[in-house]
Amino acid sequence: MIRDGATLPPRCIRTNQPVGPGDWTLRSKVSWTPLWVMLAMVVSSVSSKEAVLNYSMSRAARKSLVQRRSMAYLVTLAGMLAWVIAIFLPKGIAQGVTIVGGGTLITAGLLLLTLSNTFTVTKFRNGWFTLKGCSQEFLDSL
Fold this sequence. Notes:
With 142 residues, the chain is mainly α.
């Protein structure tokens, strides 16, 4: 067992041989994910239903969709860039603000990307998918 920030002895963690000046020493982050999260991801991937759908969009609607998605990708990329910049900042308030700001941008970008779907599936039953996001005029024409 180790605590956050621990420094292990200067010996190889695989062979227990002493490490010298030419050997490799690395500072690394480790993470743990609870089993229930992994199980939820597996259940989600196994239980999801898929369908292939052919649909059309006007040039204006397509342009709007591309703009929304591009903005979402740019916001996400800006957040990732902030995290890269934070690596090179000295520890302190500026680094913390950059990390938090980057995380906020990444979250906002992913949320914008989710909201920029053309339509969403709201229900599945007996091989039929219920969609949300079509205009009422389109639905009336069916």
